[in-house]
Amino acid sequence: MGIAGMERTLLSILMQKKTVAFLAVLMFILAGLTAFIYVRVTDMTVVFRPSNQFWTGDSADRKQVISVGVVSRYPPSVIYQGYQPIMDYLTRSTPYRFTLRLSSSYQQTVDLLANGTLSVAFLGTYIYVQAQQKQAVECLLKPLNENGEPYSHAVVIVRDDSPIRSIGDLRHKRVAFPSKDSFSGNWLPRYELQRHHIAFSDLDSVCYLPHHQSVVYQVLKGTFDAGVVKERVAREFLPRGIRILYTSEAIPGSPIVASRSCPREVSLAVRSALLRIDTRRPEDRALIETWDPEFQFGFAAATDRDYDAVRAILRAVEKK
Amino acid sequence: MGNPWRIDLRTRLMMVVGGITALLMMVISVGILFVWRTLLIEDQRNNAAAVASAASITIIDAFLRLNDETPEVEDLLERHIDNFMRTLDGVSFIAVVDINSRIIAHSDIAKYNQILKDSLSLVISGSVRPATMMYQSPEHGWTLEAVHPLQIAGKRWGVLRIGFDANPLRGQIRLMFFLLVGFTAIITAVTLGILYIMIGRITQSLRSLVTLMDETNLGSATSIPLPPQEGEVGILLRHFDMLRQRLAQSKTELISVQQQIYQAEKLASIGRLASGVAHEINNPLNGIKSALYAIQKEPDNREQTQSYFRLIDEGVNYIQVVVQKLLGFARQQPASMDAVLVNDLIHNVIWLLDYKLKQKSIDVRLELDPSLPVVRADAPLISEVIMNLVLNGCDAVDNGGMIEVRTEAKSDDAVMIIVRDNGVGIPEENMKKIFDPFFTTKGPKEGTGLGLSVSLGIVETHGGTIRVHSTPGAGTEFTVTFPLTKHYEHTTG
């Protein structure tokens, strides 16, 4: 082998060593990169990102707690959805902390008002008239409707595809009502049926259900041919397959009342805070849009005399 | 040898293309992996949030019913949690934490009434928005936890925390990772394999081309047979053939020019011989002239006339020999390689230079090896080399100097002609230039500067070498070596 040959061989060995070293470094880098990516990919840690808003707690202030009752007209979750924002507003606007206290019946709310557990309550029209007879409560406010009037209605509903076209068609039909202590539970059977010369016993079957929504669901399911509910509830379900068959004459809206034991300044605070709502103001409209639909048009001051119309209806029934 | 990092075309291409392919595949795979991973995690987080949201409705409902304070609803939370644990897949735990960070219901009964005091739990307890988080716990491994506030407007009962087993999710991500790594490796390997084959075909063509080039006689007039397929290699081959033809033409022209230069230098040498030759001719001419004069003076002296005629004849013969030797040196003929006796050529050259050498009283010593083999060479060209070397020696020595011409056989494969003088020698700075064309230390009328250059060309044409050794002030020795041709080397002794 000549010198040139030896040089070539040495160079080849040198090159091989360099190539092997280069490949080794390359493989090392690749392996490191792969391991790094593996660690990054398989580390699924997602940290908790709290929102800017924090719940500050019920007892953040030292306000006096005022319990507010609501008759069991709706399921508890619906009441909380619609009434808790009113409590929050009242708490912000007055020196008191207002908390909801739900009842299992209309009467339980009246009882709690009477024994002083509740200071303020959202009553139904009928139960108010009944309670007022016992001098148990003081009427503070009544809600306005979409026309700005302090009235509401009870309505008879049927399914969209129902053949029932008038009150007269209800004879021998199954009819569902909400609470016996609600206006809707009394108006039709005790007043409107008689006006249409239908005896209560002419109905095939009758049932009083816990809530207004229960009545709608039973009618939709076909368990009952017709039902009576507050107009606010009927309107909510109109797009879902019901039809309003008949509407009652205007009656004063469901009152907000104070118990006899409720301090005067509390009832005044409630009254003034709610009367302050002006739906023409955008900030007030934004405020009340989460409230129960019945209270989305503002309030009017109420007196006991406003409910004489209801009493008149009931008296008319009793005379007959 | 060049750069040791220089590597062959196939390796370079494979490294570059393979590297780019691997890099691209890695980037694409990593991109897909991260996007897919993000989508997967987001999907799981959304699902967890939706489940927690749905469950929170039930839990809030339970709280609302608990307000009824009836005994049958007291264990409502527990019943709901049991139901969730039974019906929801992959749930690790469900906890209901009140506003004071106290666990009021948990899928693990042992955790009841524990107060959560860690900072995260405190933050979670106050959060009013649903959120999800993922972490690794010693108890459940990877866990996706959905937190949902149990709150309606300003009424808050606490938070619902549902932990989902995220280990299967991690398994999916790992599987995807290994699939993509494998996919990248396979694609890279396949690409490299295809490249290896394709580049192999190209380099095979190039190697064939190189072999063909090596086998091609550059002096041949016949063209290179072109490959049947057209393409880069075909084009390369065609252009190589054109280059070869141009090279052959240049070589022919170069040989022609070289011969002209040789002839010019030879004529120049003859010029330098002219005075000696003239003297050689003049002596017999004077004798002839004297003889003719004597014959004219005494035409009837028959004996004297006969004697002078003999002298005239000798003179004319001598002139003929001189002219023949001169012609033998000066003849211009196409280069031909004949059997040459180098010793005879040396004798001729010394004879031609005799007058010039004697003019300077130079002591010429010939030590010619009588057993010198015959050389296959062009005799006039070799004569020219010898003459140039002797003339250079003649110019280098002073009057009465010495020139030694020696021949000897070098082993079995070469003969050497050594011309040594005891002249002025060549200065060190001129040693590298003496073979350059037109380099001369003599005056314009004494030399062309082409002698040694032409001599080197002639010797190299014969495959030989010229070595020079000189000591300034002591003399110079030129050693010309001619290789022997087997056919002739033992034919004469």
Element order of chain A: H for helix, E for strand: HEHEHEHEEEEHEHEHEEEHHEH
Q: CATH class of the largest domain in chain A, anyone?
A: Alpha Beta
What is the string of helix and strand elements of chain B? HHEEHEEEHHHEHHEEHEEHEEH
Share in β-strands of chain B: 15-25%
Query: How many H/I helices of chain A?
Result: 10
Task: Give the N-to-C terminal Cα separation of chain B.
Answer: 47 Å
Strand order of the largest sheet of chain B: 2-1-5-4-3
- Kindly name the structural category of chain A: alpha/beta
Radius of gyration of chain B, in angstroms, nearest whole number: 55 Å
What do we call the CATH topology of the largest domain in chain B? Answer: Beta-Lactamase
CATH level-3 fold name of the largest domain in chain A: D-Maltodextrin-Binding Protein, domain 2
Shape of chain A: elongated
Largest sheet of chain B: 5 strands, antiparallel
Domain count of chain A: the total is 2
Number of domains of chain B: 3
Query: CATH superfamily assignment of the largest domain in chain A?
Result: Periplasmic binding protein-like II
**What structural class should be given to the helix and strand makeup of chain B?**
alpha+beta
Overall geometric form of chain B: rod-shaped
- As residue ranges, the low-confidence spans of chain A are none
